Amino acid sequence: MTTATDLSTHDLSHHSKSFQASWVLLQILKLRIFVALFAVLLYFSLTVDNFLTMNNMLIMAQHITVIGILSIGMTLVILTAGIDLSVGSTVGFSGMVSGFLLMNGIPLGDYTLFLSVPEVILLTCLVGAFIGYINGALITYLNVAPFIATLGMLYVVRGAALLFNDGGTFSQLQGHEELGNTGFSFLGNGSLLGIGIPVWLLLILTLVTWFVSYKTPFGRYVYAIGGNENAAIFSGLRVRKIKLWVYVFSGFCAAIVGLVITSQLQTGHPMTGDTYELRAIAAVVLGGTALAGGRGSVIGSVIGACVISILNDGMVMSGVSDFWQMVIMGLVIIIAVVIDQLQQRLQKRVMVTT
After folding, report:
1. Are 293 and 82 in contact (CB under 8 A)?
2. What is the average pLDDT across 205-230?
3. What GO molecular-function term can you cite, just one (predicted)?
4. Residue 57 covered by a domain
5. Structurally, how many domains does the chain consist of?
6. Is the pLDDT of residue 262 over 60?
């Protein structure tokens, strides 16, 4: 005869097993970015010849750097429950600005002012930050939805890049000795201690942004705004100012990417960075940052950029058509969001159980 005590014991045992299964699955989902990185490396190393050669690894590092830097700025934006669809266009526009400054200088009536390479880099970064400022102002002060504001800016900035030189490019950006503007190629192709300058930029930006995110009040405010913006406002946080600076930083990161690519190619092209915003968003979501805001990390986004870049390069080397690459990249974004939603539900279940 089954007693109440037996039933109670059976329920507790079933409850315990369910909790353990949920907890284990939750830990696996939290480590999904490392699983994905290992999976893509293993798959392409087994199916693509010379995939892990030093030369190919250096090429992939360049691609990782580009998406990685974009994902750093995008992470802070998404942590505030926002989105920045204009970063790809800002990449192209920044490249055109740097190309114009190097080739044509700044016309001042009868005189033309040619800037040194550091000055060109600084001015281009300020242009990218200003684009981010416009995005932030539209969102925070005019209450335009982030998706709409940055989507509109995507077209405005891309059109401006095309208008810059009537759809043409600025090529052969070596500069001239007599003008004091040579050495631009070092930014994208140079190295320090055997490590490429773009990789150094990625490492520095990652460390600085990680420190700001976890060790400063500003970083804590960013997470608080994404977690509950109304509560952050009632707590006295300067929400508008914080969100504004987040978009400024995103534009700044996009400008750096534009400079790096233009330096590597020695050419400023108006269509540079096309669809890069989607890759950056995919890297951020795949890295564990919630689109709803308030949860995520810069480190995870950079690892997500590694996965996205390696996946893209692996498909190219495997001969996958551009059409299928777009399909697969879209599926990666959808799957990443679905997994993130599953993680949130499991997190709540485990918290309730405990």
Report:
1. yes
2. 92
3. transmembrane transporter activity
4. yes
5. 1
6. yes
Full domain range(s) for residue 115? 39-353
Considering the domain boundaries, does residue 21 fall inside one?
no
What does the pLDDT look like over 273-332, one tens digit per residue? Answer: 888 998 899 899 888 888 888 888 999 999 999 999 888 888 888 888 888 888 888 888
88-145 pLDDT, tens digit each = 999 999 999 999 999 888 888 778 888 889 999 999 999 999 999 999 999 999 999 9
Q: Which residue has 């890295």 as its token pair?
A: 287
pLDDT over threshold 70, residue 229: yes
Cα separation, 201 vs 62, in Å, equals 11
Q: What is the DSSP string of 149-172?
A: HHHHHHHHHHHHHHHHTTT--EE-
Sign of CA dihedral 344, 346, 347, 348: positive
Q: Which residues, listed in sequence order, are joined to residue 195 by a DSSP beta bridge?
A: 192
- Cα distances from 282 to residues 13, 38, 71, 330, in angstroms, run 40, 17, 9, 9
Asked whether residue 138 is domain-assigned, the answer is yes
| Burial grade of 332 (CB within 10 A; 0-12, 13-18, 19 or more) | buried
Residue type, 93: F
For tokens 């969102």, the residue is 139
Is 96 part of any domain? yes
CA distance 199 to 61: 7
